[in-house]
Amino acid sequence: MGRIINSRERETEILDCLIESYIQESKPISSAYLQKRYSLPYSSATIRNVMVSLEDRGLISHVHTSSGRVPTQEGFRRYVGRLMDEDITKGYPVASNLSLIAESGIEEAIHHTLDILAQESGYTSLVAFTEKSSGLGGEEKVFMQGTRFIFNQPEFGDIMRLRNLFYALEVRISELQDLLLRSFDERVRILIGDEIGLDEIEDCSLVVSGARKQDVTFSLGLLGPMRMNYSKASSCLYTIKNQLEKIIEDFV
User: Fold this and answer.
1) Which of 54, 73, 89, 166 sits CB 3.0–4.6 Å from 238 for a disulfide?
2) Host domain of residue 131
3) Exposed (0-12), middle (13-18) or buried (19+): which is 11, by Cβ within 10 Å?
4) Using one digit for the tens of pLDDT, what is the confidence trace for 134-187?
């Protein structure tokens, strides 16, 4: 006899299915779509009722031009919270070998690392680092790669969103640098929407992980739409962070 699923478990299952579908499809998700795609053991009417409940709790919202729903910021937070209970930092199969660039100098190695991270994840990559000795000038620095991938995200077809994003990356880059260093975590930390603290990118998310090696502290970040593939972004970032940590260790 199968396990009886209570209403809260059913809501969680349907919310997760809706968010994962929205991440892939970038369009409002209907009850009929969920039932067909995931072969859910519930009727379309039951799924619709659950979606109404999720909407009442502020976890999804109704798009008036469509019968489907999209996740809200709070919905994404609930979803990411459950992901963080799993091992989303498991090894990611990075195609490029970062050890081959280790002899090019620390800043050049960081630029290459960022480009690989952006290519592997499909999001804009950033790094902020600080070093106490004179080897890196004794100051904080920030680098960025992969802004070209912004144009692959449907959200930024909206010219106002695109303009705001580039404003944040150009004019408020020092604040992003401070944010990366303040958000330092040797595992993975995910900032969603207004948790980032910059109005221009309050509809984005930032995944962060860093490391300390002797006098060097660095924090890698991936910036993308709130509709990020959080599992892929987190495991990719964490894997490449560990490789960069080994490269930096050779320099210090």
Assistant:
1) 89
2) 98-251
3) middle
4) 555 568 899 999 999 999 999 999 999 999 999 999 999 999 999 999 988 888
